[in-house]
Amino acid sequence: MANGRRKKQQLGRIHSFSSGKTSFRGEHSLVGGPGFSRVVYCNDPEAYEALPVKYTGNHVRTTKYTIATFLPKSLFEQFRRAANVYFLLCAILSFTPLSPYSAVSTVLPLVVVIGATMGKEIVEDWRRKRQDIEMNNRKVKAHRGGIFYDTRWMDLKVGDIVKVERDEFFPADLILLSSSYEDAICYVETTNLDGETNLKLKQGLEATSSFQDDFRFQNFKALVRCEDPNANLYSFIGSLELGEEQYPLSPQQLLLRDSKLRNTDYIFGVVVFTGHDTKVMQNSTPPPSKRSKIERRTDKIVYFLFAVLVLMSLIGSIIFGIDTSKDLGNGWMTRWYLRPDDTTIYYDPKRAGIAAILQFLTDLMLYSYLIPISLYVSIEIVKVLQSVFINQDVQMYYEEADKPAHARTSNLNEELGEVDTILSDKTGTLTCNSMEFIKCSIAGISYGCGVTEVEKALATRKGSSLSQEVTEIEGHLEEAKEEKPSVKGFNFVDERIMNGSWINEPHADVIQNFLRLLAICHTAIPEIDEETGRTSYEAESPDEAAFVIAARELGFEFYERTQKSISLHELDPVSGKTIDSSYKLLNVLEFSSSRKRMSVIVRTEEGKLLLLCKGADSVMFERLAKHGQEFAEQTKVHINEYADAGLRTMVLAYREIDEEEYVAFNEEFTQAKNSVSADRDEMVESVAEKIEKDLILLGSTAVEDKLQSGVPECIDKLAQAGIKIWVLTGDKMETAINIGYACSLLRQGMKQILINSETPENKAFEKSGESSAAAEAFKASVIRQINEGKELLAASNESLEALALIIDGKSLTHALEDDVKDIFLELAIGCASVICCRSSPKQKALVTRLVKIKTGMTTLAIGDGANDVGMLQEADIGIGISGVEGMQAVMSSDIAIAQFRFLERLLLVHGHWCYRRMSTMISYFFYKNIAFGFTLFFFEAYASFSGQTEYNDWYLSFYNVFFTSLPVIALGVFDQDVSAQLCLKFPLLYQEGVQNLLFSWSRILGWALNGVLSATVIFFFCIQAMEYQTFRKGGEIVGLETLGTAMYTCVVWVVNCQMALSINYFTYIQHLFIWASIIFWYIFLLAYGAMDPYISTTAYQVFIEACAPAPSFWLLTLFVLISSLLPYFLYSAIQMRFFPLHHQMIQWILADGQSDDPEFCAMVRQRSLRPTTVGFTARFESKSQHSREQLEYL
Amino acid sequence: MEVDGASTSNGGASTSNGRANGGRSRRTAFDLFKQQQLPACKPVLTPVWVITAFMLIGSIFIPLGLVTLHASRSVVEIVYRYDAECVPKAFRGNKVSYIKNGSIPKNCYRSLKVHKHMKAPIYIYYQLDNYYQNHRRYIKSRSDQQLLHGHAHYDTSSCQPEEYNNGLPIVPCGLIAWSLFNDTFTFIRGRAELKVNRKNIAWESDRDHKFGKKVYPINFQNGTLIGGAKLDPDIPLHDQEDLIVWMRTSALPSFRKLYGRIEEDLEADDVVFVTLMNNYNTYSFGGKKKLVLSTTGWLGGKNDFLGAACIFVGSSSIILSIVFMLLHVKYRRNYRGTSYLSWNW
């Protein structure tokens, strides 16, 4: 009954909680004051009846709309689109006699467009609703009159006592009262909050720890006073009144909603924050409705066109007014055939002013063809189809988990092509969140021939010789793996020390000490699986687990921990047998981020006193004894190699202690530990420091925080594409820096700017206890550090040196304050890589917002855990990794992918294509509508601006729907400037999107101008060729309907052939759509013309009788077509030849056949590197440059 | 896919790679479609293409323009403006009062000289300028239903203000019909009158499907204000080709309408005497009236625009292609140059 025994252990002994002894001082004096007004009557929910304040229930809603708010809110969303407002106006006006068209033709499209989009919103929100319902109806045991009943989460109230059992989520923020352990500790997994999978320890107050059974809560009464709801996950201040006594509460007693109880059978807790008051919910921001930049710019173009439209209408109505007023003059009617003497208000010369105003409204409707109503519908259609292609891409399909990419919203496809900054989570996104023991250096010899992701990537880059070597090793590895089932956390292969063969190594004794140290010096707890007999470990951090596992695999199996001892199965080098040995555990000198090491003092079975110590190289080497430095030089070399390969290193050393020395130390240490003074921690540290000296070096370990496959390559490509990559992680600074190296975001020779809250001066201030002064001073120190960084930055601009900024969460809090954030951002942008560690979900979101708003560039956030939700929602694009960490991130993301490496293809290929397609499509849309609209306007000049069109009503209505829509959609869905391979081969191409070259105002205006030009050519050539003219042999004259038909034919031809000219990728689909649209126009003419004249009116038989038999009609079409396309053709020929854009360069290269020339491609790639580029290509480059310089120097 | 270009998602994961490769041998067109790898033509505007295209345009358009121009030039056309000359000298100061005064005879005799041989059929047109037949009010003021079905069709609200007269419906109603052109022309060559054929001058579809065979003019031009021509109440609209031609509204404010055909050749230096009835009021809005006699070619009437423009565009294309060629030769593209692919752009 190992389990039962463990239950009764006082595990608190191996952790030295400092906060367990918090006294009432400093912040706790604030309780009860402003901002700290919450009062919780434990076990007495009715008590709130008497209170004026009402606390919210535990019901949670994450949906965007409720039934009541849906209609107004979603309508508001819809009419944020400028065009929709305009068409609504037109729809209303179309019911008056002012309308040049029938009302149906205006209202119907609008209703369809808005209805479709609103339908989409309903479906999306319904999914969220279902999630909420599931969450609110989860069950938890809550205390009701002496018995714990299953209660729904949503029915919990503040003050309820709940019992949460193993592996359950906490339903609200709780104060821990007691647990199944005697000293009221429990283990908590906070993956959903901060992404960290290691277990956190929480401990209840001693005063309540005895309430371990259900019945004892019958008469439990207590009063909690604490802070008001806030978003800070890591702070909590409150007090608990139990009977007469008052006890302080700290974060150590707070269990947060959405975290999970682990390794503890049950806990009792009292609910303090419910529903939206909980820290998790306070951290969540409402789901924003995101719109892409292109769409926002499209709105602006619509405004611009609307201005043009108003101007045109104004001109039209003024001239119309003047013309009309002249109809009655000089005592007679001038244009008598209009009967101005007997007229309606619309044409009344006596009230020409009013007529002009009414005409203005008519014109607004008439020229509405300038603003494409079908634009937004087409965009929606195109985006959905683009998303289908993204979802279908086999190269973004993760077979192992059967997960394809999934674009959850199609709104942002083109935004993927404009990403300037990627903000990435670390754990689960870049890394697999598993630590693997991969190498070690013992007695100056490096063991372990595993290859890290980084080394693999570097090797492929360096060339064939090395990659061959790697493949050999890999092959070797594969063999080894086949022999033995792989062990999680252990990726170590070396025959020299595996399977007990270390005995034959030159320094077997050192190796023995090394492995023993690994097995003893830690705080992990073994757990023996009763069925298989295998031992597994629960450790505070995954790398600690990796050490213990490594020791086990190498023959030193740690299998039992009691309060006072640690027991191992270990290999005896003399006998060669496995023996059991037990070590008396005397003291644990805890790890802390300032000490950067931990030690244990044990007594061996022989009675020797040993101090075993492991820690970071920076603190360990200075503590070595003179005689203990035998392997120091070699070990340092190895450590540097490991670090360069992105591994996390730890130096191991030991020392034997005399009895007297230990006795003296123990006395001092116990005294320090039991002191209650403010500088207790410092005292403990200084005592520990005294004994951790004169160590004898054993060697070092290298643990790989395993990157997901393909991450370095992906980062390298993205960096070459000029995308900045920031890592925002909740992890410790050391871990984050390590991963920076592993991903090549950091490299040797890069200057690191560390902004750290753990400076000595800050500590001194914290000790002084004056919190406001401390914060003040701390902020000043952050500002100072930022300014120092900026000086470095200025210097580096000249020396072309890459800088890296690493900042921790506490400093970030100050750096994000309003008066500091600008300089902080300036510094951050100047740095090649930015790493924020220890950042809370809210901070991640804040950083994202800062970058998004201040730089105005597109940001992309990628993450996998619930702690990334805020960041995903805040960023322009949120990408969720549909990995193992639950679905919260995916649910709030815009696009979900299975692996980080798919980001490369998503951005460089799909993003680029979508951006290109969308920008070309929208530009073209405006082109075709301007080309059409201006022929209408020009005609007005010849019809005294009376509002008559040269086209039949149905020609007008079908223009956007049938004759020009399909080719545009085909362009938006299928066009590719260069193939996917070339997109990836020349990542710099991506900058076209970042710099927005294809959708710049000049380009849009260029297209608009082209539209006006086309309209001019079409209109004036047509009227010149057909003016009062006999247009065929039979002597017939061109009438309004003939001219209209001919002109319309020209427009259809020109607009579709312009499309054909601007397409880069001609599949049969494009051919089909373009030529079919033109042919369909003729078919339409035939069919429509064949209908009864009552329906077809002016189009009756116009084609078959008048146009088709006349050679001049066909000649005119050909001539106008070529002439209106010539300017564009000339322009693009000149641009292509003399001022090619990036994609055109690549098209050149392809046309010249150079894309298969590896030398050329290498040259191109090298050119895309800047000194500030990160990634392993740049790293390799800077390294080789460095060595070249050294050679020159020699 | 070579190492360089391959994405990491492909190269990095051997598993997904295997799937992609495994399927490659038997990939269907639909797979290619889904993976956006359909075979496609990717036109690149290389200099060869550009120069060829310009050359091609030039070599098509110049001959085409010449042919067109020739067709237009071979058409013989006589245009004679008569609106001012046909007002007696006494009324030249106030033409509007002249035209409105019904008691003054509107006869006018003129002679036209044929300068070139004109082959039959010779088309007679009248041409009006500054006349807005395309005005929205004007165009809407008709009832197609009434024209086809007669006064049995009562919904003629679109015809306002020429809808009713003295409480009785007007057939044909509307401003267009009401303002029907009413100048007439007769031609005499030498001593003999030239026969003018005034049948089949309207579009057949109009005659057969838009103007009823049993619809007779009723109550037409009986109002206080007389617009244009009167119609013979005994001839159905179907046969009133003047009206049908007039009601096919023109596109632009200057327009011609077919009046009739002379089916005899006119020789060069023939003199044709025209007897005009100058009834139609264009004076109040300052519109010109012209009489046009014209033959037709395969392209229709005389209009040099299309031919000239074709030649212009064609020759510009040739010039452009030469300029482009010279530029291309002078500034040779550095094919191995990568300067465009660097960060300096």
Describe the structure.
Chain A: GO terms for molecular function: ATP binding; ATP hydrolysis activity; ATPase-coupled intramembrane lipid transporter activity; magnesium ion binding. Chain A: Its EC number is 7.6.2.1. Chain A: This is Phospholipid-transporting ATPase. Chain A: Mg(2+) binds at residues 425, 427, 864, 868. Chain A: The chain crosses the membrane at residues 301-322, 354-377, 925-945, 957-974, 1004-1026, 1072-1091, 1111-1131. Chain B: Keywords: Membrane, Transmembrane, Transmembrane helix. The complex is a heterodimer of chains A (1194) and B (345). In chain A, helix 12 (508-520) packs across helix 13 (542-553), helix 27 packs parallel to helix 32 and helix 32 (1001-1026) runs antiparallel to helix 37 (1111-1138). Chain A has 1194 residues and is of the alpha+beta class. In chain A, a hairpin with a 3-residue loop joins strand 22 and strand 23 (565-571). The two termini of chain B are 29 Å apart. Chain B folds into 3 domains: 1-42; 46-74 and 304-334; 85-296. Chain B is of the alpha+beta class and 345 residues long. The longest helix of chain B is centred in the N-terminal third of the chain and has 27 residues, at 47-73. A 5-stranded antiparallel β-sheet of chain B has the order 1-11-3-9-8. In chain B, strands 2-10-6-7 form a 4-stranded antiparallel β-sheet, with no helix packed on it. Chain B has a two-stranded antiparallel sheet with strand order 4-5. The model of chain B is unreliable at 1-25 and 340-345 (pLDDT under 50). Chain B contains 11 helices and 11 strands.
The helical percent of chain B reads 25-40%
Largest sheet of chain A: 9 strands, mixed
Q: Major beta sheet of chain B, specifics?
A: 5 strands, antiparallel
- Radius of gyration of CA atoms of chain B, rounded to a whole number: 33 Å
Q: Treating each run of at least 4 consecutive H or I residues as one helix, how many helices of chain A?
A: 40
How far apart are the termini of chain A? 69 Å
Which term fits the overall shape of chain A? elongated
Number of helices of chain B: 11
Report the sheet-strand fraction of chain B.
15-25%
Helix content of chain A: 40-55%
Helix-strand pattern of chain B: HHHHEHEEHHEEHEEEHHEEEH
Question: How would you name the oligomeric state of the polypeptide chains in this document?
Answer: heterodimer
Largest interface: A-B, 131 and 115 residues
Mean pLDDT of chain A: 82
Main structural class of chain A:
alpha+beta
